[in-house]
Amino acid sequence: MTDIRDDIKRYFHQQCDMYPGEIYLDEQVEERGAENPLEEIHRLLEKCEKCPLHKTVNHKVPGNGDSDARLMLIGEAPGREEDKQGIPFVGRSGQLLDKILAAIDLTSEDVFISNIVKCRPPKNRNPHHDEIQNCIDYLEQEIEAVDPDIIVALGLVAAHTLLDSKDSLKNLRQSRHTYKNRILIPTYHPSALLQNPKFKAPAWEDFK
C-alpha cells in the first residue's frame, strides 16, 4: 500500500506542472515535514497495544542513541529505571555498560541501544515468546533505520531471538555470526556481570 503522503505530494507536483506560476511548492518546507524513520517508529510504538504489556508500564522504551551508529547494542527488555524514564539502559546495568563502552573509547552517544521488547515485563521477568513476536518488528525497523555494521546481543534472550537458537551463550560466543548481513556478537548482559563477576573477563574479550 502506498503512503498517502506520497500520493498527496505527487498530486501537488502535477498541479504545479499544469498551472505554472499559480501554484508554488516550497521544497524546503516539504523536507522539513518529512518524518525521521526512527521518529516514525517511536510514534507507532506509542500507540502499540499488540500485547498486554502496554497496560502495566509507565513508558514504552524505544531505542536511543546515534541514528548513524556503526555499533548497535540490543538487550532483552527495559527494567524499572528504564520504564520510569523511557530510555534504555539507564539503571545499574546501563551504568556498567557506560563503563564498558568507555573502556573501548566509546560513549552511549556514539552507539545505538535498544531492546528485544519495548515494554517492561512485570517483575523484570523474561519476555514471553508471544511478546517478543509482537514486538520484534519495531526492533527490525530500528536496525534498518540505523543500519549498523555490528550488532552486539546482550544476554541470552537477545542472542536466542536474533540467532534463532537455543544454544548456550557460552557456546554461541565461540562462533562467528551474522544478522541480516551484519556482524553479530553475542555476549553477557551487564546485569549478568553485576550478579556474577566471573563473566566480566569473557565479556571484556567480546568487546575488545
What does this structure look like?
This protein is an alpha/beta fold. The protein has 10 helices and 6 strands; from the N terminus they run H-H-H-E-E-H-H-E-H-E-H-H-E-E-H-H. A hairpin with a 2-residue loop joins strand 5 and strand 6. The protein is globular and about 70 Å long.
In short:
By secondary structure, this protein is of the alpha/beta class. The protein is built from ten helices and six strands; from the N terminus they run H-H-H-E-E-H-H-E-H-E-H-H-E-E-H-H.
Give the helix/strand layout.
Layout: H1 4-18, H2 27-33, H3 37-46, E1 64-65, E2 71-75, H4 80-85, H5 92-103, E3 112-115, H6 129-146, E4 150-154, H7 156-163, H8 169-172, E5 177-179, E6 182-187, H9 190-195, H10 200-207
Parallel strand pairs: 2-3, 2-4, 4-6
Antiparallel strand pairs: 1-3, 5-6
Helix pairs in contact: 3-6
Features:
208 residues, alpha/beta, 6-stranded mixed sheet, 10 helices, 45% helix, globular
Secondary-structure element order, N to C: HHHEEHHEHEHHEEHH
How many strands, which pairing sense, and closed or not: the largest β-sheet?
Answer: 6 strands, mixed
Integer average pLDDT: 90
Strand order of the largest sheet: 1-3-2-4-6-5
Please identify the structural class as seen in this structure: alpha/beta
Q: Based on CA inertia axes, which overall geometry fits? A: globular
The share of residues in extended strands comes to 5-15%
Low-confidence regions: 28-33
Q: Count every helix, treating DSSP H or I runs of 4 or more residues as helices.
A: 10
Evaluate the radius of gyration. Answer: 20 Å
Helix content bin: 40-55%
The number of strands is: 6
Distance between the ends: 44 Å
